[in-house]
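Structure tokens
________________
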Amino acid sequence: MTDVPSTLTWTRAAPPEATGPGPWIEIAFGEGDGDDAPVYLRETSAPDTVVTTTRRKWRAFVLGVQAGEFDHFVEDNRP
């Protein structure tokens, strides 16, 4: 298990008009600027459960979301 620094600055991924406690996803970037620098993710409803990845993998994920590579995961779940 990776130690999560207590000094992280968490950024909430929520729409600007969002109110209330969520649950929302939060992200924090660890020390370092390289591709292997850590990126931390958590959900506001379970802040003690933290997933860790690298900046390289996070960048690939974000680019995939922007390109629509994961749209099929939500298309069948829309109200």
About this structure: Strands lie at 11-13, 25-29, 38-43, 46-54. The longest helix spans residues 55-66.
